[in-house]
Amino acid sequence: MAAKSTPFSGSLLKLILNGTPIASLAANAATNAATVLHVSLHTDAPLLSGDPSNNEVAYTGYARVAVARDGTGWVVTGNSASPAAQIAFGERTDTGPVITATHMAVGVPNSIWMWSGRLLDSAGQPIDLLIQNGTVPIIRTTTKIMET
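RESULT FIELD:
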């Protein structure tokens, strides 16, 4: 799809992230519609296959973080979206080598898809999180997590 108007881009983000219908165009009425989306961290760009486990970080204590898809989890401004609150991942408790998370992604949780989830987007601004023993990786509210 080519360029979209800023109002439509915002509406599209609100539909995806908040479940807000687009009048006369799209509803959030799918069977088993997602009520949360999962945010994941990656050591490189996730592949376009749609599987959020591609290049996903792995350490003791890590898990994807669920964020509400109801208008409270995300703030959409113009054609970009950010978390409404900080997203804190589990504390790293192993002593392996330092991991650098360079990307984050938003996906549909495992309970809706039969495999490891469905990757929706891995755009937004780059991140650079060094994760070592005792680190709690955090995505801040100023981080653009999705742009259209």
